[in-house]
Design goal:
CATH topology of the largest domain: Rossmann fold
Strand content: 15-25%
Length: 270
C-alpha cells in the first residue's frame, strides 16, 4: 500500500487481490509516480482514494443506523461486505453485476481464501435482457425496507433511459429514510469543454477501455434530479470538498490534487 500521508488506501482486500506487479508499484513511490503519469489521467488516483473513503463512510453510517438492506449496482470487485462484515451482520447486502464478473470475483476470493459472509447475496443480471425488480426480488430483496443503494463509477456509463429506469426502481422500492449514493461526471466533460483538472487526459483513457461516457449532470441539476425520484440532497461533494476532507495532512496542507471531472452525491428519501 502507498504509505504517503493521506494516500493509504482504505481497501485492504483490494490490495490482497491485485497482481504482484501492482503491489510492487505501490511499494515504490518513484515507480508509482511514473506509472500513474504514463497510464492514469491526472488526479484519478487521488479521486479513487477519495471516492472509496466517501462511499465507505456512507456504508458505515447506514450500518450503524441499522439499515436492513444494501444494494450495490455494478459491484465489480467491491469488498465492503467483507471489510465491514463485523458491522453488517444484521444487514442483507445484494451485489448486482454481470455473471462473468461475479464468477471471476468468486474465483479470486476462493484463490485468496477469503470467506464470503452469509449476509452477502450475489445477483447475476444481464440488464439488457432481465428485469431488475424481478431479479432482485427473487434473490430475497424486500421492497419497503430502509435500504442503501450504491452506484459507484456507474452512472456515467449508462444511457439517460437506463439512469431513469434505475432511479425509478430505487424510488419504487425504497422507504422513507433510505439513501442513495452515486458519483457522476459534469455535463461539460461530455461537451469536451476542457475546463477541469485532468479532463483532457481522461478522454484517451475512456476511449482505450472501449466504454464511452454517456450520462452527465450539470452542477445545478443534482437537486432537481434527486427530487424527481423522491430524494433530498444530503451531500454534494466536488473536488474542493473531497480534497479538504481526504487530502489535508496533519499540518493542514492539501497534499493531493483530485481529477476535477467528477462529483459525489448522497441523497435521502423524504
Amino acid at each position: 500500500m502507498d504509505k504517503k500521508e493521506c494516500y493509504t488506501g482504505p481497501d485492504g482486500i483490494a490490495y490482497i487481490l491485485v497482481p504482484t506487479f501492482f503491489k510492487l508499484l505501490l511499494k515504490s513511490r518513484a515507480l508509482l509516480k511514473i506509472f500513474s503519469c504514463r497510464f492514469f489521467p491526472h488526479g484519478i488516483y487521488e479521486y479513487v482514494i477519495a471516492r472509496t473513503r466517501y462511499f465507505d463512510a456512507v456504508f458505515i453510517e447506514c450500518l450503524k443506523n441499522s439499515f436492513e438492506q444494501i444494494v450495490i449496482f455494478g459491484a465489480g470487485f467491491d469488498s465492503r461486505a467483507l471489510r465491514f462484515s463485523e458491522l453488517s451482520k444484521g444487514t442483507q447486502i445484494f451485489e448486482l453485476d454481470a455473471p462473468i464478473t461475479q464468477q471471476e470475483k468468486l474465483k479470486a476470493y476462493m484463490l485468496k481464501k477469503l470467506v464470503v459472509p452469509d449476509n452477502l447475496v450475489f445477483v447475476p443480471i444481464d440488464f439488457n435482457k432481465e428485469i431488475l425488480a424481478e431479479k432482485i426480488a427473487q434473490a430475497g430483496f424486500i421492497a419497503g425496507k430502509k435500504s442503501l443503494f450504491i452506484l459507484e463509477g456507474v452512472t456515467m456509463y449508462l444511457s439517460q433511459k437506463a439512469v431513469d429506469s434505475t432511479f425509478r426502481f430505487i424510488a419504487d422500492v425504497s422507504n422513507r429514510g433510505s439513501m442513495v449514493v452515486f458519483d457522476y461526471i459534469y455535463a461539460g466533460v461530455l461537451r469536451r469543454e476542457n475546463k477541469y483538472y485532468g479532463e483532457k487526459d481522461i478522454y484517451k483513457t475512456v476511449a482505450k477501455v472501449g466504454e464511452e461516457w454517456t450520462f452527465a449532470l450539470e452542477n445545478n441539476e443534482v437537486e432537481p434530479f434527486l427530487s424527481r425520484y423522491g430524494f433530498l440532497q444530503k451531500d454534494h461533494s466536488g473536488t474542493q470538498e473531497l480534497e479538504n476532507r481526504y487530502f489535508r495532512n496533519s499540518k493542514g496542507l492539501i497534499v493531493g490534487k483530485i481529477n476535477g471531472t467528477h462529483a459525489i452525491v448522497t441523497g435521502m428519501k423524504g
